Amino acid sequence: MLAAMTESSTPEEKPQHRGRKERRPPKPATPERLHKAALHYLERYSSSTENLRRVLGRRIDRSARLHGTDRSEAATWVDGIVDKLTALGLLDDGRYAEGRALSLHRRGASLRKISGMLRQKGLDDDRIETALHTLKEEMPAPDLAAAIRLARRRRLGPWRDPARRGDRRDRDLAALARAGFAYDLAQKVIDADDPEQLEEGLADAADEMIR
């Protein structure tokens, strides 16, 4: 009897789910929710028109799978949202292209890589060309300046330990080539005697721009 009492007094084991919240499925897409999502995205990131369309398009696809949202109708909602945000100045492909090009250049991206990355964001050739032209007007020898920045950041070529430069030369050249720089420019940066020599080359290019 004691055994029976002990057994009956033992509480039933229950699954332990404390601390784990079940994720609620996303709500169906509506014009209001998509507009709110677009504003939230633009608060966090700069964006091209086409890139924002892709972001909202992914929400629509998810809503179509889960809630049967009509993709064609939702596409017209996106058109309206894009038109409104453009009118408000929150979307501007020309401004985005120039700002993005400058940001990438400061991180050491070549003009060729910048062009490719802007194209991935859905920008057309005219806006890409304008952005690169603006960069060339503002920056002396933009590819040389970018290659120097990349080499400095990654400690390539003249920024390496002198004892290891010879062994690492081919790898350093390949790193700049993968970043979109021409071989002769990569060679100029990697084989420079010291960083000061490269900075002098940039200064000379700046002087040429002024003349």
Concise description?
By secondary structure, the protein is an all-alpha fold. It contains eleven helices and no strands.
What does this structure look like?
This protein is an all-alpha fold and 211 residues long. 71% of the residues lie in helices and 0% in strands. The chain has eleven helices and no strands. The chain has helices at residues 2-9, 31-44, 49-67, 71-87, 93-106, 111-120, 125-138, 142-154, 162-178, 183-190, 195-210. Helix 2 (31-44) crosses helix 3, helix 5 (93-106) crosses helix 6 (111-120) and helix 9 (162-178) packs antiparallel against helix 10. It is elongated, with a radius of gyration of 28 Å.
Report low-confidence residues grouped into runs of 5 or more: 4-14
Structural class: mainly alpha
For the biggest sheet, the summary is:
none
Shape: elongated
Strand residue percentage? under 5%
Output the radius of gyration.
28 Å
Query: How many structural domains are formed by the residues?
Result: 3
Helix share of residues? Answer: over 70%
**SSE string, helix = H, strand = E?**
HHHHHHHHHHH
Q: What is the overall number of helices?
A: 11
Number of strands: 0
Span of the ends, CA to CA: 106 Å
Report mean pLDDT, rounded to a whole number: 89
